[in-house]
Design brief:
Structural class of chain A: mainly alpha
CATH architecture of the largest domain in chain B: Sandwich
CATH superfamily of the largest domain in chain B: Cupredoxins -  blue copper proteins
Distance between the termini of chain B: 69 Å
CATH class of the largest domain in chain B: Mainly Beta
Mean pLDDT of chain B: 85
Number of domains of chain A: 1
Number of strands of chain A: 2
Number of domains of chain B: 2
Shape of chain A: globular
Distance between the termini of chain A: 18 Å
Transmembrane segments (chain A): 27-48, 68-93, 105-128, 156-179, 191-217, 237-262, 274-295, 307-332, 344-370, 382-404, 416-438, 458-482, 553-571, 577-595
CATH class of chain A: Mainly Alpha
Catalytic activity (chain A): 4 Fe(II)-[cytochrome c] + O2 + 8 H(+)(in) = 4 Fe(III)-[cytochrome c] + 2 H2O + 4 H(+)(out)
Family (chain A): Belongs to the heme-copper respiratory oxidase family.
Largest sheet of chain A: 2 strands, antiparallel
Number of helices of chain A: 20
Helix content of chain B: 10-25%
Largest sheet of chain B: 5 strands, mixed
CATH architecture of chain A: Up-down Bundle
Radius of gyration of chain A: 24 Å
Structural class of chain B: alpha+beta
Number of helices of chain B: 1
Low-confidence stretches of chain B: none
Number of strands of chain B: 10
Low-confidence stretches of chain A: none
Strand order of the largest sheet of chain A: 1-2
CATH topology of chain A: Cytochrome C Oxidase, Chain A
Order of helices and strands of chain A: HHHHHHHHHHHHHHHHHEHHEH
Helix content of chain A: 55-70%
Largest interface: A-B, 66 and 56 residues
CATH topology of the largest domain in chain B: Immunoglobulin-like
Mean pLDDT of chain A: 93
EC number (chain A): 7.1.1.9
Oligomer: heterodimer
Membrane topology (chain A): Multi-pass membrane protein
Radius of gyration of chain B: 21 Å
């Protein structure tokens, strides 16, 4: 980190991070926040697996088990996977398109702090009346009848975190559309940028459905509305529709950026142009488009009728085609390449078969007629862990290792990375492969205990052993991250001999990224300069003043305001004053921000000339 | 936008697969008469016990080897919770829930329905094999979810 190099005090580093609007520092914040919740969700997963290690276990109470399984799902999706993807997007996308920052640096910071406070809010529930216990899907009317404040924490916490996600999505759309360097046409954008753009569009259209659903849930629970209570004329099925209209695009929001990561990693380490670049782009767009038409495949057994079920089954299966195109494109990229088995590449190679298995079980589940045998069994649990862990999580780790030098200027220990991969990968397959069979044998999901003598013992035991291997792997990785930063051995700006723009500048990049905006001459711009030019990007503009935004503490205060207000709204009565304080802070900050002329500052040309180096990766 | 010849071939293969896929599934869905659980009728969840057919839950004979089984689900049990069905008969299951969303799964068969309060769901199945079947709730419904089951015997 450049800040530690200047030997700044802890207080000033902390203040710097609390107020930063720099996309590279926000990426680090997302990484720390996301990884913290990843560990938390992992611990919850371990509790679930320990509970299910033997039949009729009473390691956890039934109520606590329900809270743990709800929080495991909610935490992993909303507070771990998405922020970790945002960490990768923040570090890579502005650099890949040759921009100096995202379009709205202030909103970027606000997005992070909203996510952070939303996540903290959700987890405060452990200490106040108990965590949410209605499943991560919170099907009404169970979520309406759930006692205590658990589900209130769910609805308000996710609402706050969801605002953050929406803002991040809008920010990336505007950044990618408006801020590409000269020559960076759409069809020259790296695939990770493409998938970020498409995932952001999905966020823009999918999250409002969740926002609406959560508002209705909040009003049902706290203010006596009856949207979902059938006894008073509400309709419980509407929640399922709203949740899955959001929830299904959400899984593509998770997987598309991971596809993007592998589309960066595989060409780099196969030393070949990505096979079928244009078909990759179209496949991504097609997956996103179909992703909005398939939500009811989560509801095949609700009784929507044969026509609705068939249409949703057809649409779901159609998604397998563009996804299959992508899988074969990666294989063709590998074919004949000079492959280097670095750890990001090993993750990519592990991803391909794992994700394909998840895709196959996906087509099985999509077939409505066959789904009646799998619905709500462990088969479904195995399927979505194969796609989310085997796709998104492996992608996040590949991307994290790959872009780690860009974030911190250091390189993670390759040997430990390989240890991490094998422990995690073997553990993963042990845990989830056998859950397919558990499901086919009839074990329903979300069961606190299972009975003895039903043939479920062995597979559940193996599954728990696998979970421990994954935990050990993760510990190795955390150790690796800490030790790498303690040693702090710096590497060059292009340690992987890579192809895209972010590797054309030093690691970590200067806070203004590019001294002069680069001229992009084609796909894989740095590789073109390496093979046809002098290995350095040609500037597209003369050296001049650079306009930079000022740091701001307002995003933190705004998010803190909503966090405090959430408690007031939840507990009501004599706690209404908290809502007054919270909303006061929130709207006060907005007014302050609106009336303050914050024009940023300029880095002057003379200061840029004084800096060492020419801004290239050397 | 320049496309390599192999890329073009590959895209054409992809599109053909897509069309083949859609046609196959379309024929399966519409021409082969696939019948998922579906009833589309509604019921007031507060008045389940007074509304026919749920005022008399249980097995009813409606024809030669044809039965109707009316069941009411409630946290955390089925009414009735023990049923005997003659071998080889066709049973139409008619179910509803009094409180939250439950599941109705007969392990080892394709009978699997979501049971939503306020809605009726139904499905038909022919029991060709004798034996004891387990009816499970597979839709997470709260603290006693894992205990919610009923027995069905085919003799």
């Amino acid at each position: 980190m450049s800040t530690t190099a200047r030997k700044a005090g802890f207080g000033s580093v902390l203040w710097d991070y609390l107020t930063t609007v720099d996309h590279k520092k926000i990426a680090i914040l997302y990484l720390i926040g996301g990884f913290f919740f990843f560990i938390l969700g992992g611990l919850e997963a371990m509790l679930i697996r320990i509970q299910l290690i033997v039949p009729d276990n009473d390691f956890l109470s039934a109520q606590f088990y329900n809270e743990v399984l709800t929080m495991h799902g909610t935490t992993m999706i909303f507070l771990a996977a998405m922020p970790l993807l945002f960490a990768l997007m923040n570090i890579a996308v502005p650099l890949q398109i040759g921009a100096r920052d995202v379009a709205f640096p202030f909103v970027n910071s606000l997005g992070f702090w909203l996510f952070f406070f939303g996540g903290v809010m959700l987890n405060v529930s452990w200490f106040v009346t108990g965590a949410p216990d209605a499943g991560w899907t919170s099907y009404a009317p169970l979520s309406i009848f759930s006692e205590g404040h658990g589900v209130d924490f769910y609805s308000i916490g996710l609402q706050i975190a969801g605002f953050g996600t929406l803002m991040a999505g809008i920010n990336f759309i505007v950044t990618i559309v408006n801020m590409r360097a000269p020559g960076m046409t759409y069809m020259r954008m790296p695939l990770f940028t493409w998938t970020t753009l498409i995932a952001s569009v999905l966020i823009l259209f999918a999250f409002p459905a969740l926002t609406v659903g959560l508002f209705q849930l909040t009003f049902d629970r706290l203010f006596g509305a009856n949207f979902f209570n059938p006894e008073l004329g509400g309709n419980a099925i509407i929640w399922e529709h709203l949740f899955w209209i959001f929830g299904h695009p959400e899984v593509y929001i998770l997987i598309l950026p991971a596809f993007g990561v592998f589309s960066e990693v595989i060409p780099t380490f196969a030393k070949k142009r990505l096979f079928g670049y244009s078909s990759m782009v179209f496949a991504t767009v097609l997956i996103a488009f179909f992703g909005f038409m398939v939500w009811a495949h989560h509801m095949f057994t609700v009784g929507l009728g044969p026509i609705a079920n068939s249409i949703f089954a057809v649409a779901t299966m159609a998604i397998a085609v563009p996804t299959g195109i992508k899988i074969f494109n990666w294989l063709f990229t590998l074919w004949g390449g000079s492959i280097r088995l670095t750890s990001p590449m090993v993750f990519a190679l592990g991803f391909i078969p794992t994700f394909t298995i998840g895709g196959m079980t996906g087509v099985m589940l999509a077939s409505a007629a066959a789904d009646y045998q799998y619905h709500d069994s462990y088969f479904v649990v195995a399927h979505f862990h194969y796609v989310i862990v085997g796709g998104t999580v492996l992608g996040i780790f590949a991307g994290l290792i790959y872009w780690w030098p860009k974030m911190f200027g250091t390189l993670l220990n390759e040997k430990l990375n390989h240890w991490f991969f094998w422990l995690f990968f073997i553990g993963f397959h042990l845990t989830f492969f056998f859950q397919h069979f558990l499901g086919l044998m009839g074990m329903p999901r979300r069961y606190w205990v299972f009975g003895e003598g039903q043939g479920l013992d062995t597979f559940n035991f193996i599954s728990t052993i696998g979970a421990f291997l994954m935990a050990v792997g993760t510990i190795v990785f955390v150790y690796n991250m800490v030790m790498t930063q303690v040693k702090g051995k710096k590497v060059s700006g292009d340690p992987w001999d890579a192809r895209t723009l972010e590797w054309a500048i030093p690691s970590p990049p200067p806070f203004y990224n590019f001294k002069q905006l680069p001229l992009v001459r084609g796909l894989d711009p740095l590789w073109i300069e390496k093979t046809e030019g002098n290995g350095k990007m040609q500037p597209a503009e003369p050296l001049g003043d650079i306009h930079m935004p000022n740091n701001s503490f307002v995003p933190f205060v705004m998010s803190l305001g909503l966090f405090i207000a959430g408690f007031g709204v939840m507990f009501q009565g004599s706690y209404w004053f908290l809502a007054a304080i919270g909303f006061g802070l929130f709207f006060g900050s907005m007014i302050y921000r609106s009336f303050k002329d914050d024009l940023g500052y300029h880095i002057h040309k003379e200061d840029l000339e004084d800096e060492k180096g020419d801004g290239s990766n050397g | 936008m320049h496309m390599h010849k192999l890329e073009k071939v590959w895209l054409i293969i992809g599109v053909i697969t897509l069309i083949a896929f859609l046609t196959t599934v379309g024929i399966q869905a519409f021409a082969s008469g696939h019948a998922p659980p579906s009833d589309l009728t509604k019921v007031d969840p507060e008045k389940v016990d007074e509304t026919p057919p749920f005022n008399e839950p249980g097995l009813k004979k409606v024809g030669e080897n044809e039965y109707e089984l009316v069941m009411v689900l409630q946290s955390f049990g089925f009414t009735p919770n023990k049923v005997e069905i003659p071998h080889g008969s066709t049973v139409k299951f008619i179910v509803t829930s009094k409180d939250v969303v439950h599941g109705f799964e007969i392990a080892g068969t394709r009978v699997n329905m979501m049971v939503t309060p306020g809605h009726v769901n139904s499905m038909t199945y022919t029991f060709e094999e004798k034996g004891e079947y387990l009816i499970l709730c597979n839709e997470y419904c709260g603290i006693g979810h894992h205990m919610m089951s009923a027995e069905l015997e085919v003799k």
